[in-house]
Amino acid sequence: MWAKKLGSQLGRPTRSVGGWLVSKMFKTRNQVLEESAVQLCKIQPGDTVLELGHGPGLGLESAAKLLIGPTGHMIGVDYSEYMHQMAKERVKEFLENGKVTLHLCDVAAMPLEDRSVDKVFHCNCYYFWPDLRKAATEIHRVMKPGGLIVTTLRHSHIAVLAAKRVMPGQNWRPEAYMAALRDNGFTDVRMEDTQHRNITFQAVYATAST
Asked: Collapsing DSSP states into helix, strand and coil, what is residue 133?
């Protein structure tokens, strides 16, 4: 029962003791992954960038600081109301000046225009998407042709959680995520080991086809 409860909070934190503890974990354990995802996206000052499952807003804040061009814009989506409110506080200044826009919504149904996003990134997120292929189709819809998507994870850690049945089903496997991308309009899908701050993790890359 504890594993199911933990998995639920990891996927969709609520305003509760469990959700609060998970948010603290996101801020510490995910920091390197968030920073790395932003860096690996090679964000340009005028890009429109989307973070999926933005959590408490670490990646939003990091990416928004790079979007110094007049057309630079950061978009974040998360379906946890608790994380949505937490991120709003973290990037309050960027929200007020219009540099950041946040949406409380499902990754598989985003209120974004077709072919409107240059770069997409997410961290420790796809494991909780109920339908990987539906999500991949929606992500591809909003991305400009040739746009890059990057996801970061620590595979060994996720495998341990999956063995304890914290992760739902088999969606946690990178192979499942990468297959969904390939089957729904993405090319050059690959996973590479990389390092940042002496921490080894995995990065999955894919390019939106035309």
From this structure: helix
